[in-house]
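Intended use. Records like the one below are meant for learning the mapping from a protein sequence to its folded structure. Do not use them to infer anything beyond what is encoded.
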Amino acid sequence: MQYEILKPGDGVAGRASRCAMAIMAKAPRAGKVKTRLAPPLTLEQSAALNICFLKDTAEGLAKVAGADGMVCYTPVGDEAAFDGLLPESFRLIAQRGDKFGERLLAAAEDILACGYRSVCLIDSDSPTVPKTAFEQAVWELAREGDRIVLGPSQDGGYYLIGLKKAHAAVFEDITWSTASVCEETAERAHVAGLEVVMLPLWYDVDDAATLEVLCGELVGGRMPDFVGVSGYEAPHTKEFLVAMRETATV
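Structure written out for the chain above:
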């Protein structure tokens, strides 16, 4: 299945009342995604798990009212890697820019230029984020007035940033890949005079330790001690982890 590819400026009137929920994702190729999970996984298994994350996140987002799901992807030219992985309603839009902050800002600019009222940029590493967190983000961005919505991750980053305007300030001069990313982003927003809304704390899965947390949640039925609500069931990811446990890989 191939998906519509959005281009900035191709606005559609019906999008003016909707929030774009965009998963920031690399094409799921072995050796290109989730490489920090190898070991304990192989590079091929890491890529397969990444596909499970992508499927679960996309299927969860497809159920959020008032939102349109999409994948903001890289690299350009590798669109076929997503064929058949996403719900039929999903679209693709290419990433641009070099550094991480530049890519996030460009994604916000390009998606809003497609006519959406607001946009949430979502990581592809948190397959069990509860649907209620995404629903809250859409609701907060539908309220009058400008604001930033942040979904903080346990490692100090964020799994979601929601905006009504592409505010460059929240992407500039951030020390990316550190434990202060979410805090710095909130500070930049406050300096810019923006309200900041925090969603429930969750976690990314990007190494062996957080993979074990995910296994505990989905396979062992143990919620992480730092979260206060139940997560999304992530069926594709759970099936993968159960199979890996049976072969003693994880």
